């Protein structure tokens, strides 16, 4: 990787921060290659789905906040 190049995790996190995730509050989602899996109330089934669909990738797994985050 060259300097300034984003990692897969950074790309997925960037996608997540811009995504419309209304309706997913309090649930788990996984992002792989800019695609969202879930939401799911339990993390285990979500991880199994991600492993099945993307066996060679490491997903970014996030529990969607129930409130808007406060950024100062």
Question: Could you walk me through the main structural features you see in this protein, from its secondary elements to its overall organization?
Answer:
The protein has 72 residues and is α+β, with helices and mostly antiparallel strands. It contains two helices and three strands; from the N terminus they run H-E-E-H-E. The chain has helices spanning 8-18, 43-53, and strands spanning 28-32, 35-40, 60-63. A three-stranded antiparallel beta sheet has the order 2-1-3. Strand 1 and strand 2 form a beta hairpin. The radius of gyration is 13 Å and the shape is flat.
Q: What is the tally of helical segments? A: 2
Could you state the order of secondary-structure elements as H and E?
A: HEEHE
Q: CA-to-CA gap between the ends?
A: 32 Å
Strand order of the largest sheet: 2-1-3
Helix content: 25-40%
Strand content: 15-25%
| Rg, Cα atoms, Å | 13 Å
Mean pLDDT: 91
**Number of DSSP strands?**
3
What global shape is seen? flat
Structural class: alpha+beta
Topology, element by element:
Elements: H1 8-18, E1 28-32, E2 35-40, H2 43-53, E3 60-63
Antiparallel strand pairs: 1-2, 1-3
Features:
three-stranded antiparallel sheet; flat; 72 residues
Describe, in short, the structure shown.
This protein has 72 residues and is of the alpha+beta class.
């Amino acid at each position: 990787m060259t300097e300034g190049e984003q990692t897969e995790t950074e790309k997925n996190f960037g996608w997540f921060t811009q995504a419309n995730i209304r309706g997913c509050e309090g649930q788990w989602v996984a992002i792989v290659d800019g695609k969202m899996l879930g939401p799911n109330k339990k993390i285990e089934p979500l991880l199994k789905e991600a492993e099945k669909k993307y066996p060679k990738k490491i997903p970014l797994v996030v529990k969607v906040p129930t409130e808007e985050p406060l950024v100062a």
